[in-house]
Amino acid sequence: MSSFEDYYDTSGFRDGHLDLLRRIEELGPRFATRAAEVDRAAAFPTENYRELAENGFLKLVIPEDYGGYGLSLFEYATIGAEIGKYCGATALTFNMHTSSMLWLRFMYEMPNLTPEEKQAFARMRDIQFPKVVEGGAIFSQPISEGGVNWTSEPIKTNCRKVDGGWVINGFKKFASLAGHCDYYSIVCTEHFEGVAPRHEDTMDFAVHKDSPGLKIVGEWDPMGMRGTTSLDLVLEDVFVSEDDLMMPAGVFPKTLPQWPAMMATLTPAYMGVAQSAYDFTVKYLRGEVEGQPPIDRRVYPTKRAAVARMFQRLAEMRALWTTAFREARPFPAKAEVMRLYAAQYAVMEGVQELAALAIRTCGGQSMLKSLPLERIYRDSRCGALMLPYTSEIMEDYLSMMTVYDMDEVDSAPADTVSARVSMWRPASDAA
Ligand SMILES: Cc1cc2nc3c(=O)[nH]c(=O)nc-3n(C[C@H](O)[C@H](O)[C@H](O)COP(=O)(O)OP(=O)(O)OC[C@H]3O[C@@H](n4cnc5c(N)ncnc54)[C@H](O)[C@@H]3O)c2cc1C
């Protein structure tokens, strides 16, 4: 297995960051050993979480003032990618927890909050951060509802004001960590009598796992990322109070669109999966995979050419991805956002190419379930479809940003001037 020092210039890395990366190198081999059973049983990697918690990883991005490590977004991305090298499902779910903490951390620091919003937000952080730092709580982040890109329309799950708080009603699709977290970070829209649901009324609550009215439903037997236990949630009159708020009312739509890198945090897990596909291939060609006969397959020029291509693709992905996370900031420039979208696309598409090439290169025996590559291949297929930055959506956004100025985007006649005028139609329609 490669070391992070093989692909990052670590000369500018802080000591604390390096210590955490080295800690993952120690824990990782155990994650990799457990990954096969986690995948087979579609079971949550509980043991991995116990070890991550014991080693302080739950508080990675929590500010130092609150007892966390205060890692930057880039520093976190490198940790997520290292975890993903050993177990994709652990890294992906770990991101849901960390992303909840990132929002509490960075949205608060945004310059477009009013003093009143900041004051209210500070109180919420005082309640939420200690749950993790002192209580070891795990947060999930179930936003998706199925059937819609949740950045385009107000979230359907809703809350209504009642005495002493709100009641939440709704449905969440693919709630990773379902049944294995302490709090579900539930994003919903506050509904008011006679007013159509609006983005500006988006709320975010930490709903405790034992809240009456919260149910985990559905089946979880997917193709890949099986250890994420992403079942569905139903919320029926779930009561929440001011103390459960993760953000003041209206802060979500005011901040998140201006911090687009916050939505790219699913990529570290897949960057790690890509690295593991490459690492496995090298080990396999060298005849060094445990339990396998020590056959030297490096002697085939075709295999060497393929692994060279894998290295090139991986290096390209990592360079773009590293740049995007290093320059990530709120209120980015257009060029930075385009690089971020390109990085997201490169990772989510590239990971699949690498995993497919790894199977082709290693050959028939490598796709046996006794080896990790076939799991890596299945896991690699899941990244490109994760909202809000699916590969299709990245293509769509970049297709506009490359050829239009930003002030033209909303009025561009995108779908009306269509190549579809020359598309085949059945004769009856053409008549
Ligand atoms: C392993 C795994 C774990 C997950 N964990 C979580 C989690 O913890 N939290 C969470 O919130 N979600 C999670 N998800 C859900 C994920 O982010 C998606 O919401 C989910 O996969 C639904 O996608 P869909 O393709 O079924 O979308 P649909 O329900 O079919 O609906 C939206 C569709 O509209 C398309 N669309 C919207 N705008 C455009 C556009 N401009 N151009 C082209 N297409 C567009 C989208 O691509 C998408 O296909 C997880 C998914 C997986 C696979």
From TrEMBL:
Record-linked Gene3D superfamilies: Acyl-CoA dehydrogenase/oxidase, N-terminal domain, Butyryl-CoA Dehydrogenase, subunit A, domain 2, Butyryl-CoA Dehydrogenase, subunit A, domain 3
Q: Which residues form a coiled coil?
A: none
Question: Which residue range or ranges hold the Acyl-CoA dehydrogenase/oxidase C-terminal domain?
Answer: 269-385
Locate the Acyl-CoA dehydrogenase/oxidase N-terminal domain: which residues? Answer: 32-102
**Keyword Transcription regulation assigned:** no
Looking at the record's lineage, which domain of life comes first? Bacteria
Q: Give the GO molecular function terms.
A: acyl-CoA dehydrogenase activity; flavin adenine dinucleotide binding
Q: Which UniProt keywords apply?
A: FAD, Flavoprotein, Oxidoreductase
What InterPro entries does UniProt report for this protein, alphabetically? Acyl-CoA_Oxase/DH_mid-dom, Acyl-CoA_Oxase/DH_mid-dom_sf, AcylCo_DH-like_C, AcylCo_DH/oxidase_C, AcylCoA_DH/ox_N, AcylCoA_DH/ox_N_sf, AcylCoA_DH/oxidase_NM_dom_sf
Q: Which residues form the Acyl-CoA oxidase/dehydrogenase middle domain?
A: 155-238
Which cofactor(s) does the record list? FAD
The entry's family comment says: Belongs to the acyl-CoA dehydrogenase family.
**PANTHER family with a match to the protein in the record:** ACYL-COA DEHYDROGENASE, ACYL-COA DEHYDROGENASE YDBM-RELATED
What protein is this chain from?
Acyl-CoA dehydrogenase
Q: Which organism is it from?
A: Rhodosalinus halophilus
